[in-house]
Amino acid sequence: MKKGVNTNLLHGYPVIDNYTGAASIPKYQTSTFDQKEIYFDSKKYCYSRFCNPTIDALQKAIAKLENSEYAFAFSSGMAAITTALLLFEAGDHIIFPKEVYGGTYQLSTVILPKYKIESSFIDCSCLNNIEKHIKENTKAIYIETPSNPLLKISDIIGIVELAKKYNLLTIIDNTFMTPIYQKPLELGCDIVVESMTKFINGHSDVVAGLLATNNEKIAKEVALLQKNFGAIMGVEDAWLILRGIKTLGIRMEKSVSNAIEIAKFLETKEKIKKVYYPELESCKYYSVHSKQATSGGAVLSFEFYNEEDRKLFLERIEIPIYAVSLGGVESIISHPATMSHACMSKEEREEQGISDNLLRLSCGIEDLEDLINDLENSLK
After folding, report:
1. Is it the case that residue 369 has pLDDT exceeding 60?
2. Which residue is catalytic, options 17, 27, 49, 264?
3. In whole angstroms, what is the distance from residue 10 CA to residue 6 CA?
4. Which of 113, 146, 242, 284 is a plausible cystine mate for 151, CB 3.0–4.6 Å?
């Protein structure tokens, strides 16, 4: 019988240590393992850059979450993204959404060109527009939906069908939705990457990433890249994420319910120019998003009409912390222009629609009434 989300998060992967029966997988804080047997390959564990029991348990948890055959834990979300993009070779071309995450944008415009890997940044909300930009050397379409920070939506199923038509890979950053609310591999994507720094860990105390796939060839290439680049996760971080995963379902449920109510609230405020959240019926992406995801997620963005109101709001807000990142149990307000997208020029940000008066709110698990009252007072 199919089990529910929270049951699987507590029991659907190794959560008990087979050796001692401990109810929590131990931190195997070691770099190396005793090799009594004559042959080097006779034991599964020999060196923690290759394999470690704590990290192995986390990777099995990731596979359960993503419903994947193969899963990898990385030292950061960008390490996972970089590894995925280093699957390509000199002369290859990759299509990205023009509103792609700032770190991915910088990697693709500053570093990948050194290896002769080409990139195009386009509006991916239109399938015809994507098809127009496919070239003979195009090898992949990179998807980020909802996008950061404007919560733009791409049609995953449509892009997958288009990619298959031209024999292209699809890579998707699923950080905002998490595998709780959007399942890219089940929708046909070849590779999913996520920052586990965010919701999967959920406590703002770890930097980590994941990559999952059902393609054995891709998995072997990823394993080789990870081993040789050394983009592995530390044992302490892996243990913390294993702990965080257990409450992912109930954390997300509260954060998402807060987000939809706050988005509706902000839509009524005269100082707010626009609210970006895909579960609002006023959102032009509402229909597409509803077909591929089961919630709007826990992140929304909102734009002020003028700089003065935005600055006064940030001075007065009390409950959310003002910081880089998202996905913690505490609400976090960010200023994309000077944080997540600071590596872009002002002109590049404006081309994406990211104004200096845009703020992003990652909703935590605080009481909704307290968050609404804080927003109300800050907007006065």
Report:
1. yes
2. 49
3. 6
4. 146
